[in-house]
């Protein structure tokens, strides 16, 4: 799903595709969910909170940096950075990563896979070279299965792995932490480990573009060890679509048997009887080797597999394009279809281009959309996990080893030649060399043979020249001398070319070694600079730590001094407080004693209160003076200062301490209200306080 950037709005929608509408508030930066109704078919996504897309975008940028076919000096660090950034995301943030499947798709347990990148290689190595796959379970079953079969068949040889797809190597390393060698790394490892005899076992299907690139990559290493290349799975490519070979026949039988058994049929014939077709989906290529797929269809037909059809993802050649294959199956009348990859691994193409039912362009979707079949099922299994296929790879390596052995015999025969060798010995060596395949010839140093042939040609040219120089020399002798001279020149040219080729190989290796040394020097310099930077940082940190320690020590000493000062002050304060508390206690005791003495000396005070009736007008919030209604006396006579207070809640009449009477609600004329009033005489130095309660009559007037 495509999530919008902050502040964006989606105005177009493709039927059937999910989308998100973004309503953004700049004021408080809060996401408000909105429910949209588009039509009767519309699906609505309501979200409660906005997820910042920036972290996900950063992860996509880091992934893009390692989704490349070239390894760089920063590849390892870039892979680690991408994984660290992914792991730091929340689940909601991960959902916004465009390349979610890069880290989020579970393809199996990578720990079950052996990258075979160990050192400690013997003098004899079999290097299994594959394009590679990031699907862990498939890699273990297919490429891993082939590697194990080769190791079991060649226990005295070290089996190692190399992938040609750096983009896949990076994916596995970033996601799973598994490091797989690329071609250069694997070959450099072989040189560093002193390998003398190297057999390249390509898991490629054919002599296509990737195989050609592999062969080219080996050139610079030929001066360092004997290198033999085994045939790819389907062997040599024929001239046209009708040409087949033993390898294609063996592969056809193996994959069809596996497909039929997986579909619960005894064989292809049983599947055909049940109306079932087996469709094998290959990759396809623009290389001239594309004819291989037509050859595989020819092979199926020759084996009587009338219900087996070969197609390609890339649609090259056109006869193997998906729609063309669908038409063939329809025309043949089959109603059940089993799709299976014609690929070494069951990786991205098998899982997505073939079996992704949600992708309308996938093969399973296209076959289903044709509405011509009762069922369309997928078998996600690579060729490499079939034991019979693994045996073909074993046989190819065996043939390569046997060819290398034959080449070694010829190499010994040629190495024994000198400039004095007889014509018979030289011819025998030439015949033996010419009988070798191109791959075998690559293992033989032809230069001694060329030099021996040059010596014979020089001798023949000298003899012919001498005969032609005679006074009675015939025209035929003179022509023979010219031809012998030309042959000697041609032989010399071949020797020079061989020497130049050797020099070129040496030059290429020297340049590679120099480039490697420069890279190592650059890396060492960078490491030294990084180490120096770390040392400087450590020194700076140490100086900072020392300064902080000194400051802390000074602060501690200051704090100690302050603590001692505070302690002394506290002790003084404590002493002063103790003294004050003693003095306060003494004062309190004296006051209590005085109060006791005063109390014993005071006369008991009794008041007498008389109340007169007062009048209040019959209106709201009427206030009248009340104190004039009271006459208060005690033993000494009339009391002029006293407090009063009372209220009649029923009639809402209050007598306040200041002598005011408040009538909160109007009372009827002539009504008399009785209010109990508390009268308080506070007393003085000679008399105790006293209280009395009297009834005050309030008569309502106009």
Distance between the termini: 88 Å
How much helix, percentage-wise, in residues? 40-55%
Strand order of the largest sheet: 10-18-17-14-15-16-11
The overall pLDDT average reads 86
How much beta, percentage-wise?
Answer: 5-15%
Round the Cα radius of gyration to an integer and report it.
53 Å
Unreliable residue stretches: 6-12, 22-35, 39-43
DSSP strand tally: 18
Protein architecture, described:
The protein has 702 residues and is α/β, with parallel strands linked by helices. Among the domains are: 17-104, no CATH class; 110-229, Rossmann fold; 246-385, Rossmann fold, CATH 3.40.50; 608-700, Cadherins (Immunoglobulin-like, Sandwich). Helices cover 48% and strands 14% of the residues. The strands form 4 sheets. The chain has a 7-stranded mixed β-sheet with strand order 10-18-17-14-15-16-11, with no helix packed on it. Strands 2-1-3-4 form a 4-stranded parallel β-sheet, with helices on both faces. Strand 5, helix 12 (291-302) and strand 6 (308-312) form a beta-alpha-beta unit. Helix 16 runs antiparallel to helix 17 (423-434). It is elongated. The relative contact order is 0.05.
Summarize this entry quickly.
The protein has helices at 54-66, 75-87, 91-94, 100-104, 136-141, 143-153, 166-176, 183-192, 209-218, 246-262, 268-273, 291-302, 322-332, 348-354, 363-369, 387-415, 423-434, 438-441, 447-469, 475-601, and strands at 124-130, 158-163, 197-202, 226-229, 276-282, 308-312, 336-341, 375-378, 608-611, 614-617, 622-625, 630-634, 637-638, 643-648, 653-655, 660-663, 672-681, 690-701. The chain contains 20 helices and 18 strands.
């Amino acid at each position: 799903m495509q999530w919008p950037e902050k502040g964006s709005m989606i105005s177009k929608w493709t039927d059937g595709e999910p989308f998100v509408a973004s309503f953004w508030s700049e004021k408080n930066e809060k996401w408000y969910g909105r429910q949209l109704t588009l039509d009767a078919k519309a699906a609505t996504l309501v979200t409660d909170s906005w997820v910042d897309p920036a972290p996900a975008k950063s992860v996509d940028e880091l992934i893009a940096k390692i989704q490349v076919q070239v390894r760089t000096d920063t590849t390892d660090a870039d892979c680690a950075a991408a994984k660290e950034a992914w792991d730091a995301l929340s689940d909601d943030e991960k959902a916004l990563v465009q390349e979610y499947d890069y880290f989020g798709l579970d393809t199996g347990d990578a720990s079950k896979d052996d990258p075979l990148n160990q050192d400690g290689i013997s003098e004899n190595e079999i290097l299994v070279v594959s394009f590679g796959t990031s699907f862990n379970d498939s890699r273990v079953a297919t490429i891993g299965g082939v590697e194990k079969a080769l190791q079991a068949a060649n226990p005295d040889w070290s089996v190692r792995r190399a992938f040609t797809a750096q983009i896949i190597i990076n994916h596995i390393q970033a996601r799973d932490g598994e490091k797989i060698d690329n071609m250069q790394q694997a070959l450099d490892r072989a040189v560093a480990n002193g390998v003398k005899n190297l057999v390249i076992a390509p898991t490629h299907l054919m002599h296509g573009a990737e195989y050609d690139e592999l062969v080219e990559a080996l050139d610079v290493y030929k001066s360092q060890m004997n290198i033999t290349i085994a045939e790819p799975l389907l062997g040599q490519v024929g001239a046209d679509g009708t040409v087949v070979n033993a390898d294609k026949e063996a592969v056809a039988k193996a994959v069809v048997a596996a497909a039929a058994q997986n579909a619960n049929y005894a064989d292809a014939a049983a599947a055909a009887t049940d109306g079932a077709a087996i469709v094998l989906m290959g990759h396809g290529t623009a290389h001239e080797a594309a004819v291989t797929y037509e050859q595989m269809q020819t092979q199926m037909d020759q084996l009587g597999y009338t219900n087996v059809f070969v197609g390609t993802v890339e649609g090259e050649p056109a006869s193997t394009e998906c729609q063309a294959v669908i038409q063939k199956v329809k025309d043949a009348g089959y109603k059940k279809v089993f799709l299976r990859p014609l690929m070494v691994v069951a990786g991205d193409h098998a899982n997505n281009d073939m079996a992704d039912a949600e992708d309308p362009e996938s093969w399973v979707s296209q076959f289903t959309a044709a509405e011509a079949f009762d069922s369309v099922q997928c078998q996600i299994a690579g060729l490499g996990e079939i034991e019979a296929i693994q045996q073909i790879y074993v046989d190819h390596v065996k043939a390569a080893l046997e060819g290398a052995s034959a080449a070694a015999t010829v190499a010994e025969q040629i190495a024994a030649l000198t400039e004095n060798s007889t014509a018979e010995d030289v011819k025998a060596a030439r015949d033996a060399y010419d009988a070798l395949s191109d791959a075998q010839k690559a293992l033989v140093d032809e230069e001694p043979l060329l030099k021996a042939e040059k010596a014979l040609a020089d001798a023949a040219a000298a003899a012919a020249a001498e005969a032609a120089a005679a006074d009675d020399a015939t025209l035929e002798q003179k022509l023979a001398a010219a031809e012998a001279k030309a042959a000697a020149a041609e032989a010399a040219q071949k020797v020079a070319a061989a020497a130049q080729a050797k020099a070129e190989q040496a030059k290429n290796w020297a340049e590679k070694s120099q480039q490697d040394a420069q890279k190592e020097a650059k890396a060492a310099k960078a490491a030294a600079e990084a180490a120096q930077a770390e040392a400087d940082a450590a020194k700076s940190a140490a100086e900072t730590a020392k300064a902080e320690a000194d400051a802390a020590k000074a602060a501690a000493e200051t704090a100690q001094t302050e603590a001692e000062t505070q302690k002394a002050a506290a002790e003084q304060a404590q002493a002063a407080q103790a003294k004050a508390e003693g003095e306060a206690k003494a004062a309190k005791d004296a006051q209590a004693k005085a109060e006791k003495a005063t109390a014993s000396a005071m006369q008991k005070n009794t008041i007498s209160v008389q109340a007169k009736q007062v009048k209040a007008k019959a209106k709201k919030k009427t206030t009248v003076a009340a104190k004039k209604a009271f006459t208060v006396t005690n033993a000494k006579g009339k009391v002029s200062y006293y407090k009063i207070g009372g209220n009649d809640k029923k009639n809402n009449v209050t007598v306040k301490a200041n002598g005011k009477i408040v009538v909160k609600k109007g009372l009827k004329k002539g009504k008399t209200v009785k209010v109990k009033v508390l009268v308080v005489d506070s007393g003085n130095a000679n008399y105790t306080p006293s209280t009395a309660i009297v009834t005050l009559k309030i008569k309502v007037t106009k």
